[in-house]
TrEMBL record:
This is FAD-binding oxidoreductase. It comes from Pseudodonghicola flavimaris. Residues 6-370 form the FAD dependent oxidoreductase domain. GO terms for molecular function: oxidoreductase activity. The chain crosses the membrane at residues 7-24. Pfam families: DAO (PF01266). Its EC number is 1.-.-.-. The keyword Transmembrane helix applies. It comes from the Bacteria. Keywords: Membrane, Oxidoreductase, Transmembrane, Transmembrane helix. It is an enzyme of class 1 (oxidoreductase). The keyword Transmembrane helix applies. Signal peptide: none annotated.
Amino acid sequence: MKEHYDVVIVGGAVIGSAVAYYLAANPDFDGSILVVERDPSYAQASTSLSASGIRVQYSNPINVKVSQYGLEVIRNFAEIMQVGDDRPDLNFHSGGYLYLAGTAEQAQVLRECHEVQRACGADVVLWEKDELAAAFPHLRVEDIQLASYGLSGEGWFNNTGIMAGFRKKARALGAEIVTDEVVAIARDGAKVTGVTLKSGAVIGVGTVVNASGPRAALTARMAGLDIPVEPRKRTLFVFDCADSPEGSAVVNDGRLPLMIDPTGVWCRPEGKYFLAGGVPEEDPAVDWDDFEPRYAEFEEQIWPALAERSPQFEAIKVINQWAGHYAYNTLDHNMVVGRHPEVENFIFANGFSGHGLQQGPATGRAVSELIAYGEYRSLDFAEVGYERVIEGRPFLEKAII
């Protein structure tokens, strides 16, 4: 490890690893890169504990385009991230997403989102209840006013695989990745000058990238800055189904999508089982080390909604559960990406609110461009920059799970 690095990335999960890869792969950037990751097992990383989905069904064009690029990377991941004979396959399942609207207000949101999605070239359709029932015969649709379904370009994939692929390729291209923890960030007026590691090392920096997930606010505070990101707990449940509806769909070769019920409860196939979750009725910030599942959510919230939606979800049994953290942006549930306007060599890549895995490739590319060129050259991330945090101006996203 050297005494100075041009770029120090705080956090080595999918966002930090993606930034490192895109910087290292850019022929116009010849600086040194250090990724500092406190947990080499990534056992509690949001990346490792996520449901690992990707969708284009958003209400803002930037979010749609970010996922479209993410899908392009995922589909070509083995080729892009090849190191030697290792070609990491992310095992992408193109199951699609299915949003169900149970009220006139929810239906109107789907229609508004659909216009944005189609303008971006997304392969999404709106269905009335009879079309929904024909496509997915296992569903009860009497209360449904409208459905939105991704015909292609959506699904789920290997979450730890994408992180490991970025990390391994970044290292092969010259980035250094160390197991340590940033415990202090030094500033000289409007410039970050260095970081102190838990091991005692003091390192000079050219640029610091905050990619520390749910701990983003802790990292920002070390530099005397702030970001409205806090850890929110999400419990995921794997359940077995006595009479599985998988294979019964009339579309997509019988495969079921990730379905989002009007209640906010969602589920999707997971091998021979199903994976499910939802937004807790009470959703406070939690301690950064609190990963105890909320077991009661299944009986109280998830199973009732699924059983109401399909008779085949009446007889189900939990076989596993775990809790992960959303890096929850309390301002508007959207990512915050870009430089601090006053401390310009401090870059945020935070607040993904559960979307970091699918938004990682485009975010890594964007941050690398900002460092290498001083501007965005692919997708313009200006509207999700930090300025809106200072101004208290939400960049609202209607399609939140």
